[in-house]
């Protein structure tokens, strides 16, 4: 473990915050959103907004960058309130915090020459976690205070937002960030933070693990750098992320494909648990690996997907990990070894 120089790193700052874009143009891979919001900055006319899409694609960063450009520098904090609806999702929060903020007198910008629009912005992050009653209350507040307050509703699933609320917003979909854009951003951060990696495989691994979530990629990279600032390897990233090493997945496939007895599967289950692997992560990786096997028929792949989905639900509901993993491996083994009509195992 490398000793960190306190002069070099005087304060821990999350890189996700440190490298947030300060301008809308700096937002990665959301060209249509950037083009539309640039016009709002130029005119000062901002509608109610709804940003939706997968995690880590820049939704919160975009509205914060827009606010900084509209209101300028540190002053944007006077005009913006940010609430995480997943933590504060009751109707009381909507009625008290949001209503109180919307009713207050708008602060004047200290620079009289700065063209600052006379509005304020309420950011509701993870709004798809709000109750239906809270969303209905929010709709009424939007109608009441739309003259001086704009709302930006951020969610992963637009289907969980009630139609009367969604219809009052201009909707922007944030797509997963492209691999090249993620890798470029990660390399940029490594250069700024003087972090060395063994090869580009490290960046490829970060992107694969995050599945388009740039925030997760950056957080994983920062975690790795706190333990090993120089020569970070692909294995380091996998270890920190809880990823099961590929050789274990190959071993699982070999055993469940060739075993003739239940005891082999039972011992494999215990070995995976002894290694401390997350059971959900194990079954996800097994499924991904088997889906890429050209020797398995589409019907078998469909059956395997059903088994994994069934186990996933049981684990989420608190089912016993050992029993569910044993059931899954046994079922997968049985499906793989079933012969088709032509007598093969495809």
UniProtKB/TrEMBL annotation:
Residues 45-178 form the AAA+ ATPase domain. The lineage of its organism: Eukaryota, Sar, Alveolata, Ciliophora, Intramacronucleata. The gene is Contig2729.g2930. InterPro entries: AAA+_ATPase, ATPase_AAA_core, DNA_pol3_clamp-load_cplx_C, DNA_Rep/Repair_Clamp_Loader, P-loop_NTPase, Rep_factorC_C, RFC_lid. It comes from the Eukaryota. The keyword Cytoplasm does not apply. PANTHER family: REPLICATION FACTOR C / DNA POLYMERASE III GAMMA-TAU SUBUNIT, REPLICATION FACTOR C SUBUNIT 4. GO terms for molecular function: ATP binding; ATP hydrolysis activity; DNA binding; DNA clamp loader activity. GO terms for biological process: DNA repair; DNA-templated DNA replication. Signal peptide: none annotated. Keywords: ATP-binding, DNA replication, Nucleotide-binding. This is Rfc2p. Belongs to the activator 1 small subunits family. SMART domains: AAA. It comes from Stylonychia lemnae.
């Amino acid at each position: 473990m490398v000793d960190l120089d306190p002069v070099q790193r005087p304060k821990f700052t999350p890189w996700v915050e440190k490298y947030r874009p300060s301008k809308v143009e700096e937002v990665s891979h959301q060209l249509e959103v950037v083009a539309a919001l640039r016009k709002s900055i130029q005119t000062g006319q901002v509608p109610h907004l709804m940003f939706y899409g997968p995690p880590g694609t820049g939704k919160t960063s975009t509205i914060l960058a827009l606010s900084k450009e509209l209101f300028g520098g540190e002053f944007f904090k006077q005009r913006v309130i940010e609430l995480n609806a997943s933590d504060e999702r009751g109707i009381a929060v909507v009625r008290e915090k949001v209503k109180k903020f919307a009713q207050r007198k708008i602060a004047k910008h200290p620079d009289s020459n700065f063209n600052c629009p006379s509005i304020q912005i309420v950011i509701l992050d993870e709004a798809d976690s709000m109750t239906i009653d809270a969303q209905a209350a929010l709709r009424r507040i939007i109608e009441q205070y739309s003259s001086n307050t704009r709302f930006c509703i951020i969610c992963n699933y637009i289907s969980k937002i009630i139609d009367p609320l969604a219809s009052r917003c201009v909707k922007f979909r944030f797509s997963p960030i492209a691999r090249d854009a993620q890798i470029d951003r990660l390399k940029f951060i490594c250069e700024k933070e003087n972090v060395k990696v063994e090869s580009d495989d490290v960046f490829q691994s970060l992107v694969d693990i995050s599945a388009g979530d740039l925030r997760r990629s950056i957080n994983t990279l920062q975690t790795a750098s706190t333990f090993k600032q120089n020569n970070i390897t692909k294995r380091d990233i996998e270890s920190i992320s809880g990823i099961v090493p590929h050789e274990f997945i190959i071993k699982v496939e070999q055993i469940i494909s060739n075993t003739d007895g239940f005891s082999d599967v039972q011992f494999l289950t215990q070995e995976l648990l002894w290694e401390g692997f997350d059971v959900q992560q194990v079954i996800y990786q097994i499924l991904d690996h088997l889906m890429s096997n050209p020797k398995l028929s589409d019907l078998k792949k469909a059956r395997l997907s059903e088994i994994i989905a069934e186990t996933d639900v049981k684990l989420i509901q608190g089912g016993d990990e050992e029993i569910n993993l044993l059931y899954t491996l046994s079922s997968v083994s049985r499906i793989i070894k079933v012969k088709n009509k032509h007598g093969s195992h495809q």
